[in-house]
Specification:
It is built from 15 helices and no strands. The two termini are about 20 Å apart. It has about 280 residues and is mostly helical. The chain is about 70% helix and about 0% strand. α14 runs antiparallel to α15 (about 250-275). The protein has two domains: about 1-225; about 225-275. The chain is globular, with a radius of gyration of 19 Å.
């Protein structure tokens, strides 16, 4: 499996950056044309779209509340921990991509300081599911960046051969990503453009992670079994954090994440013992 991932990453070309950059330029031009490059106008031109999407998506509150948790790296990554044993190159790339996405997210949120919907709209006019977020860090959506960074790394890691299958694979991956990021509107946490731009930035972060990791083997030690105890300790700590989340929020996604992490903990411990 790991050799397939390495081969797939090696076949990627920089031209994959063209489409996301075109999308970001198009969004910027659209905002410029509508004189919405200031915070007030940015939030107001999206108001109707936000209220419409929020009203529709929030009709499934439990689903929205559970799925939106996948924008939390602890939750999403827990489902991928078994790759450390079977396809360590995925994790080598994912770590690099996640660091890139973290830089993008922190810088852009600080630069733009866009208020959350709960900070600018009447809270009685839309549905808030889970914790009420009312800070000035709405743009871009960090959850969306995390989701698409992760999906991009996975999408290109296991992309099939044949153009027809490649297209289908990418469409499915993007569809899953959109379902997940739209939950940020469903729970009342973000404006529509926050999640769109966040998704594009996540895709770019995933690609950068792949190309950077191709050139610099920073995390190659992950493939060395002698370092497995590090992951055993890390997984144990993450299990504790997930148990704490279950105690505080009791969401189904946390149980599933904990089960996946526990299974990976068993696999990696067993692999280390038999090394």
């Amino acid at each position: 499996m790991n050799n397939k991932v390495i081969c797939n990453y090696r076949n990627l070309r920089p031209s994959l950056f063209y489409l996301p950059l075109l999308i970001l330029i198009s969004i910027s031009l659209l905002l410029y044309i509508q004189d919405a490059l200031n915070i007030h106008s940015y939030t107001q031109i999206q108001k109707d779209y936000f209220f419409f999407l929020n009203s529709k998506l929030s009709q499934l509150p439990s689903t929205q509340h559970n799925l939106t948790q996948l924008g939390d790296a602890l939750i999403f990554f827990s489902f991928l921990t078994f790759f450390i044993v079977y396809a360590p190159r995925v994790w080598e790339t994912l770590i690099t991509a996640s660091l890139v996405s973290l830089i993008f997210s922190c810088l852009l949120k600080k630069i733009f300081a866009v208020p959350r919907p709960a900070a600018v709209f009447d809270n009685n006019g839309f549905v808030i599911i889970g914790e009420k977020l009312s800070g000035h860090n709405s743009f871009p959506s960090g959850h969306s960046i995390t989701v698409f960074t992760t999906l991009t790394v996975l999408m290109f890691a296991f992309i099939p051969k044949g153009m027809k299958y490649k297209c289908l694979w990418c469409v499915v991956a993007v569809f899953i990503g959109l379902v997940l990021v739209l939950t940020r509107i469903g729970v009342g946490a973000h404006h529509p453009l926050d999640v769109i731009v966040g998704s594009v930035i996540g895709y770019i972060s995933g690609l950068l992670g792949i190309f950077i990791n191709q050139k610099y083997s920073i995390w190659a030690w992950i493939n060395n079994k002698k370092f497995y105890p590090v992951f055993i300790v890390l997984f144990s700590v993450c299990c504790f954090l997930l148990v704490n989340k279950i105690i505080n929020h009791n969401l189904t996604i946390f149980y599933l994440s904990l089960a996946s992490l526990a299974a990976s903990l068993y696999i990696i411990t067993n692999a280390y013992i038999k090394k």
